[in-house]
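User: Predict NAD-dependent epimerase/dehydratase domain-containing protein's structure from this.
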Amino acid sequence: MATRLVVMQPKQFSHHSSWVSPHSSLFPSSVSDFNGASLNFSMKNKRKVWQSKGTLQVRASSAKKILIMGGTRFIGVFLSRLLVKEGHQVTLFTRGKAPITQQLPGESDKEYADFSSQILHLKGDRQDFEFVKTSVSAEGFDVVYDINGREAVEVEPILDALPNLEQFIYCSSAGVYLKSDLLPHFETDAVDPKSRHKGKLETESLLDSRGVNWTSIRPVYIYGPLNYNPVEEWFFHRLKAGRPIPVPNSGNQITQLGHVKDLANAFVKVLGHPKASKQVYNISGSKYVTFDGLAKACAKAAGFPEPEIIHYNPKEFDFGKKKAFPFRDQHFFASIEKAAQELDWTPEFSLIDGLADSYNLDFGRGTFRKAADFSTDDMILGKSLVLQS
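Assistant:
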């Protein structure tokens, strides 16, 4: 499939330079509204502040020319806004199938215009390795954020194209850890080379072998507005429909969720941080929660009555290829102590506040990524009724 570069680089970049607008003829001509998350930016004492809750400030010491692989679906939407507000020149590498910028609920017209006028776009398929290498080399970026990379082979052409790269910041996953009875997972824990995230492990190894100044972030479960994985949305669908919540086994399995805005802040924290060189950081929320507790938390955050919870044995059912529950049926959580100590980073959102933020700015406005599918629920509930009778 042929790919092409659609946006030319501005003639000169500085903090006060003129930018090529994404609304010019070089960018997609239309940008549609998309119900997502609210970001409120302001200036105070000449420091750039994300005031989603008014507590956390992130600042970069100097402007960088930054490439984000991805950036229009979830994590990158929030990360790119922070980086642009910090004064960095940000380019998104995408296939161009989605609008490059989308106004978010609660974001003023001026805030959106300020952001969208500065974001740049490199259109192409990252599987076209020769195009990636040629186009990225021509631009000469200082820093790369790889948000959507899954395999090491996808990263090699970027490294080849940027021999003087200052930092490669990678979105990995806490799913790389080997299942263990000793929890929480620490960054030094054993990893599972056979996990479905083995490509991310191989990418981390590649970065280290190439001598790149890299940093890897390993989130646990990510949630928040625009989430394309059915995490909180799975619960919201059932709560809105007034249905029981089917939870596997005892419901006491402990897990952990981290808000996407806290994750974006962590990604900014590692930029240029001397302690982050060639390091891995777990990023998630500060609290752990049981499956039953999560169902109740979603109800409380969204203003629904406490739900009826039905427990079932997954081994008694054949769900085919469908997932009856959105989480691993096991204890799964990680320590964020290293990030807190070395990066001076702490999650801004409590679980209830974060779920409320997600509901109010997304699902509660009538937007969701996947339509409700209660077919597996009906199998579970049908058998439960038979047993009760």
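The chain has one domain: 41-381.
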